[in-house]
Amino acid sequence: xxxAITQDWDEEDAFDGEDERPSRxxxxxxxxxxxxxxxxxxxxxxxxxxxxDAGQAPSGQPKGVPSAVLVAPPPLWRPLPSAPALYGxxxxxxxxxxxxxxHMSGGREDTLTFGSFGDIGYGRISLxxxxxxxxxxxxxxxxxxxxxxxxxxxxxxxxxPVPTKFGPMEAGAVTLAGASxxxxxxxxxxxxxxxxxxxxxxxxxxxxxxEPGHIACLVDRITLRATDNPxxxxxxxxxxxxxxxxxxxxxxxxxxxxxxxx
Length: 262
Fold this sequence. Notes:
The protein contains five helices and eleven strands, in the order H-H-E-E-E-E-E-H-E-E-E-E-E-H-E-H. By secondary structure, it is α+β, with helices and mostly antiparallel strands.
């Protein structure tokens, strides 16, 4: 009997399984449909990326690197070729070379040159107004000015005060070198309160050396022709009342003769 019950149960269970199997198969998605959809999506993606790559494909020529645009800063000084002369040398017959330039801050520099390097009496004076230059040592200042004139300083002596109509200026003996060498007296003066200064040199020779009195008289003969700077006008007006008696008869500068004697 147990065997018969077991047999009956197996037959019923088998029958039920055959009944349920078709219903489970009917509820599953069709595998071939899923495969078609997946394949279509893959093909579409490949086509899309292929088009993107084709649009960005290199042309065979290396792409040029865009060059950076470099903008140079404006120069500190600009030349004033047609500007009227602001200064002169009193009593001078020989021509004086004059160069003017304007600082970006609005200041102005006028350089007076008389004679040529190597000549007895060769000199150069740069006068600055409306602009205060950075503080430098006497030697550095003269070296910088000499370089602007295409010269170098081979020997120098410490600066010392020399009286002038503007007040004490610093001066010292130097040797300037270009195609040759020449002994000179370099000098400088500055009035920071009035934004006025000048630097330069006067040269002689070993036989006719320039003395401090010579440069004092050269400075004594600097004249102001025109300026809109009231401080500079006041400096020259005051200086006219302080001119050196020894320079009145040109006694000192008469010993420095040559082409373009100051």
